């Protein structure tokens, strides 16, 4: 079951890469306001949600390892906020720079929580 957990973790990191990569590729457009939510960002956020929930389930149920529920809840709330932002804005030709910046900031915050919260 540890192999499944490791594969889920790899997919979770791929989701983060897709979301953050989509953000970084358009940062230059933030000066002109010419930014939009690219499909990679939406797919990345959805991948993070599915694999994150699966990771918690595998860790808690199958491997009987402890889970920091406060950390997971915080990360889930942030990810749901990101997902709502990218999902509602995905079809627009141009997105508000504030909304776009919030997606990037919340994504980096989620990564920081994952790494630094021990």
Question: How do the strands and helices of this protein lay out in sequence?
Answer:
Elements: H1 2-24, H2 39-62, H3 69-89, H4 97-116
Question: How would you characterize this protein structure?
Answer:
This protein is an all-alpha fold. It has one domain (2-116). Helix content is 75%, strand content 0%. It has 4 helices and no strands. It has helices at residues 2-24, 39-62, 69-89, 97-116. Helix 1 (2-24) packs antiparallel against helix 2 (39-62). The longest helix has 24 residues, at 39-62.
Coarse morphology: elongated
**Percent in strands:** under 5%
Label the structural class: mainly alpha
Q: H/E series, N to C? A: HHHH
How large is the radius of gyration?
Answer: 15 Å
Number of helices: 4
Low-confidence segments: none
The chain-level mean pLDDT equals: 95
Q: Helicity range of the residues? A: over 70%
Tally the structural domains.
1
- Sheet with most strands: none
Span of the ends, CA to CA: 23 Å
The strand count comes to: 0
């Amino acid at each position: 079951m540890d192999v499944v957990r490791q594969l889920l973790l790899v997919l979770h990191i791929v989701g983060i890469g897709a979301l953050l990569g989509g953000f970084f590729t358009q940062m230059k457009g933030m000066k002109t306001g010419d930014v939009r939510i690219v499909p990679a960002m939406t797919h990345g956020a959805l991948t993070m949600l599915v694999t994150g929930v699966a990771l918690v389930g595998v860790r808690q149920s199958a491997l009987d390892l402890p889970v920091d529920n406060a950390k997971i809840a915080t990360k889930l709330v942030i990810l749901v906020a990101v997902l709502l932002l990218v999902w509602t804005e995905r079809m627009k030709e141009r997105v508000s720079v504030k909304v776009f910046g919030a997606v990037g900031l919340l994504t980096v915050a989620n990564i920081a929580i994952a790494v630094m919260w021990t």
